[in-house]
Amino acid sequence: MTSAIDVLLIEDEPSIAEAVRFVLTREGWNCRHCANGSEAIGQIRRLKPRLVILDLMLPGRSGGELLADLRADSVLARQPVLLLTARGTDALPEGADRVLAKPFANADLRLVVHEFLDRA
Amino acid sequence: MKPRTRRLFLGREGYRRRRAADATRVVMAAFALAALLPPIWLPQYFSYALGTVWLAATWSLTILATAALHRILTQPPAEDEDDA
Amino acid sequence: MTPETLGAAAIAYIALMFLLAHAADRAAARGRWRWMDRPVVYTLSLSVYCSAWTFFGAVGYASRSGLEFLTIYLGPGIVFAGAWWGLRRLLRVARMHRVTSIADLISSRFGKSAALAALVTLISMLAATPYIALQLQSFTMAISVFAEPGDPLPGNISLWVGIGLAAFTILFGTRNLAADERHHGVVMAIAVEAVVKLAAFIAVGTYVLWGLADGPADVLARIDRLAESPEGQGWLIRPDRWFTLIALSGAAVVVLPRMFHVLVVEANDEDRLRHAGWAFPAYLAAMSFLVLPIAVIGRDFLPADANPDLYVLTLPLSQGLDTLAALVFLGGFSSAMSMVVVSAIALSTMMANHWLVPLWLWLRQATLSAPAGAQEDLGALMLNARRLAIVAVIGAGWVYHQASGGTAALAAMGIVAFSGMAQVLPAMVVGLSWRGATRRGATAGVLAGALIWAQMVFLPSLGLIAPPVMPAGIDPFAGAVLLALSVNLTLLILVSLIDFPDPVERMQALSFVHAIAPDSTPNEAAPSTKSEELLTLAGRIWGSENALEFFRGMAEQQGKSGYLPDLTPRFLVDFERRLAGTVGAATAAALMTRVVGRGGVTVADLMEVAGEASQAREANRRLELTSSELARTAAMLRETNDKLTALSAHKDAFLGQISHELRTPMTSIQAFSEILKEPGLSDEDRSRFAGIIHDEASRLTRLLQDLIDLAVLEVGSARLKPAVINLHDLIERALAASGATAPQRTFTIQRNRPAEHMSVITDPDRLLQVLINVIANARKYCDAEFPVIRIDTRRAAAGGTEIDISDNGSGIAPESRALIFEKFARLNDPARAGGAGLGLAICKEIMEFLGGRIAYLPGRGGACFRITLPARPPVSQANDAN
């Protein structure tokens, strides 16, 4: 299964979102951005991205809740998710395929995304 | 304020105070009788000088007695006497 | 001594009373009322009983009818001898229900009936108008004594006197709408006037007794000589009148509106009856027994055509004692003035509470509950209603005086008033001693009594209809009064016996007869969202400061902090009673139903709560004491627990939050600084990314600064740098500095600039920080279409300073209020309005550091923060225990 969209970034901080999109787009991936947790599920369902990069702290619906929703959904349960977190590494929600702690080096980001997308 | 059980008998202080309160009623009744009865019964005697002296004397006595009784009635216990 | 000089003296005297009342009011406002709040002041204030009727009219009365004039004082003498069990009960019950007037007492006892209150007010008004006219007339008569024969008096004296008295009453009687009806300034003025009139009367009395006559024995001898003369027949006591008048005056000393006001409403506690119980009769005795020598000597010394009502003045004048006569004139003026002022206060309260406000509420049926109506200031409305009523009361007296031509003997009008008000007595006495008396019974009795009185006493006294014809040997007045009172009493008892009262009435009956606080019914519990509405209602009536104070106190009693108590039945009952202390029981009940919307009490509830057996009552009471204690502790524990749970969750979240707040900007900075190192970026991108890095770095700096601030304050190692500053300048700076927040929005700033100019001793930089923070918050979060920020400053009671900063947005939701001063407690803030959520936490720490506090005030419409500063900051480092 292939999608036109490689990465859907769900992140409310505009400057971080811009940085991530800049880095991933330069790498040649097609990257979309969504700033609001409550709209995210609909976007995922519609765009069917190959990878979701999800920020943990979101207004509206938090990253953890979103993840739980995804895993409970029959269609989206296997959606690959990369979780970004700015909190400590303890008490992370279940269900993420990979976790990347903020702040991260751009190289690390590229590497992780490569791992996800090259697998397919 | 703490819960208080109703006592049947009072100590000396309380007893005195209770009787002083009773006495104020007696004084009032006595004065009412003194002010009402003689002038109504014997108006021809009590309409002039005698009546003046009589009323002045009984009223002064009443005032003195009330003052003395009220002095005894300092600081009443809160709920001992709503038996009016 | 000319009328002009006396007029000037009267004006000077009234001005003196203004000053005195003003000083007393100010002292009371500063909490220094206590030293004036003595039994002697209370006793003296009771002397409003002795109006100009006593001062001038008693002598005339004695000259015409002999000892009969004494009945007017013997009645009160008897009633006060029994003050300890009769009046004390009345005072206790009235204070318990915060009764505002005699009409309110009757209405409250009989199920808070608005109709009964209006009826009693009507009777009081009818009875008082001629009585007030009498006072104005006595002034005119007294001043005319000093005029040269044939010299016309300055026109409209009585009008000017009326205007002056109305002004005095409005100024000191309707100052504010307190939760109780006490007027310290007025009471003080009355007490002083009582001394003046007693001194004047004693002066003229002793002069006559020993100066003109040869002492008491001589006067008594003259009385006995008089018995043989034809006039002596007038002195013969008529038993029916003797009895009736003593009964009437005994009733009057309690039920006359002005007497009820000073005796019950202005009383601070019932203990003062211990002193007044003998001192007031002593005052009356002194006044009344001095009447006799004046009357007898006046008759012997003065020409036969002299008016006996004015012997007090004409006797000294005939002896050339102008100064004594002037003193007597002032004494008479004092008695007239205090009677008019207190009557006007009492009557205006009754008219406003029982006529005008219910009428207004009825007209406003639809709009009061609507939010638009909520803005109206009910307190101002009620004060204006009272002012209007005062003008109406005194104006009616003046009109009556003009219309009647003022010829009637002084005594007659007084007795008419007494007999009218006495129609309230059966309802009061029976209502306080028999639980079976009902509203319909009382209404029937009072109405019938009042109609008979109007037909047989009041209207004939106006000359409108002929006096009633009585069987020979019965005095028309005594007969009419006894008839009215017996019909009154009979109807009251008969109707009550066959009636079945509604539950509210039965609860009130229980409470009044047994002098126990009114109980509450279980189905009164209202949704707790209403407590803010009640606070708003209270604020509109008492002013929001007093309302907040009361609500805070009640919340504290429940073991809660903050300003919103739970709407327990107990609180609702207390609140309604407090409200009744301002607007009367009937109106308070109507308002409560309007806001809380509780249903009526049912008979079943009644039987459940207020069991009619006294045993059940006793058990209830004991149980209630224990359970209320328990409930309070439980509430306190629950609140502490809630707060601790919230706090500990918060503490866990705190580290995560700090981490998040630090890492987020770091992420952008790291990402973009790496990107900047990459080749092939456009110059445009490059500079934009550098800009982002810069913004994020400063965000980080701000956050660090906040954290360090907090840490320093919390550890207590901050240094206080106190200085004296002008609050106005500080607010100016804060407004300027906070303008950078949400600059695109235009705010209307409401301030009272002159009031801001006060010096404050504090750490200016720290206070500035708090002000900026709070104002910036208002700018950020106020969601009104036309945002308004309002800043109020005032000196607080203990010399501290209060600054209220409020906006007209939707405020902070009740459930969030507990946490707003915690770290990172940023509320519903999707926009992340810049700060990290530390602002109010820092404000709280700073205010504690400055020895003051910051609190959220509910019930102000929008969000409102109160910053309280102490008179001077705490001594540095002394309180750094925490």
Automatic annotation (TrEMBL), chain A:
SMART domains: REC. Residues 6-117 form the Response regulatory domain. It comes from the Bacteria. It comes from Paracoccus halophilus. The keyword Phosphoprotein applies. GO terms for biological process: phosphorelay signal transduction system. The modification 4-aspartylphosphate is found at residue 55. This is Chemotaxis protein CheY. It holds the Pfam family Response_reg. Gene3D superfamilies: 3.40.50.2300.
Automatic annotation (TrEMBL), chain B:
The keyword Transmembrane helix applies. Keywords: Membrane, Transmembrane, Transmembrane helix. It comes from the Bacteria. The keyword Transmembrane helix applies. This is Uncharacterized protein. The chain crosses the membrane at residues 20-42, 48-69.
From TrEMBL, chain C:
SUPFAM superfamilies: ATPase domain of HSP90 chaperone/DNA topoisomerase II/histidine kinase (SSF55874), Homodimeric domain of signal transducing histidine kinase (SSF47384). Signal peptide: none annotated. Its EC number is 2.7.13.3. CDD domains: HATPase, HisKA, SLC5sbd. It catalyses: ATP + protein L-histidine = ADP + protein N-phospho-L-histidine. Residues 657-873 form the Histidine kinase domain. Keywords: Kinase, Membrane, Phosphoprotein, Transferase, Transmembrane, Transmembrane helix, Two-component regulatory system. Pfam families: HATPase_c (PF02518), HisKA (PF00512). It is found in: Membrane. This is histidine kinase. It comes from Paracoccus halophilus.
